[in-house]
Design brief:
nine-stranded mixed beta sheet, mainly beta, single chain, Immunoglobulin-like, five-stranded mixed beta sheet, 2 domains, rod-shaped
Length: 231
């Protein structure tokens, strides 16, 4: 029987105790911190004949030492097992941000879990996830990973920003228990441009209406005004 068993929060887990004796021993499982017989727990069952302890809906409270007790008419033997509850990642926060083109942007994601998860980012529509540190295919982009106030934190830094960086980014947190995802949007602001919609010359005759169209691309949307001879 192993001395440490990892179990995942929210899932079911089984631990088996094996002992030899004549007559065949009967088993019980005890929680060490309060001497609770786990057969009496509403989330645990103990097979006295096989020594199998089954825990349903594993929770944080199950973390800690438990003892297997094997008994027969000749005596008692016990062995301790340390239950380590793996807590699935949970992304706490990722905020939408809006930053001007050619500036530095920082998209921050925090996540909890046990063990602390690793965090990375994926731009929706791209071929692969980003890696920790400087990106091998784009030296403008860095993923900085650290621990802050007991939580895992990753910052996606892009400097300088380009229009093509605008989009939806997924924060991905992973540990032994699984993964969690949450999206945040990076908006790249840029000044008005007529590059794709140039103003064309228009001809008309006296007292005949003429339509002129002006379309400017920008984020945020531009305010458009018309002037005649600089007035």
């Amino acid at each position: 029987m192993p001395t440490t068993v990892e179990v995942v929060e929210g899932e079911s887990a089984s631990v088996t105790c094996v002992a030899k004796g004549k007559p065949r021993p009967h088993y019980s499982w005890i929680r060490s911190n309060n001497n609770q017989n786990l057969a009496s727990s509403d989330r645990s069952t103990v097979n006295e004949n096989t020594g199998v302890l089954t825990i349903t809906r594993v929770s944080k409270e199950d973390n800690g030492e438990i003892r297997c007790m094997a008994r027969n008419a000749a005596g008692t033997m016990e062995k301790s097992v340390n239950l380590v509850v793996v807590i699935k990642p949970q992304v706490m926060d990722i905020k939408n941000i809006s930053v001007a083109e050619k500036r530095e942007s920082k998209l921050v994601c925090q996540a909890t879990g046990n063990p602390l998860p690793t965090i990375t980012f994926w731009k929706i529509g791209s071929n692969k996830e980003m890696v920790a540190g400087l990106q091998p295919t784009d030296d403008r982009v860095v993923v900085d990973q650290r621990m802050v106030d007991g939580a895992a934190e990753a910052t996606l830094i892009i400097n300088p920003l380009m229009k093509s960086d605008d989009g939806l980014y997924t924060c991905i947190a992973r540990n032994k228990g699984g993964e969690a995802r949450k999206n945040g949007h990076l908006t790249v602001e840029y000044s008005p441009s007529f590059a794709n919609t140039p103003i064309k010359e228009a001809w008309s005759w006296n007292k005949i209406p003429v339509n002129l169209t002006c379309l400017a691309e920008s984020i945020p949307n531009a305010t458009i005004e018309w002037r005649l001879n600089e007035r």
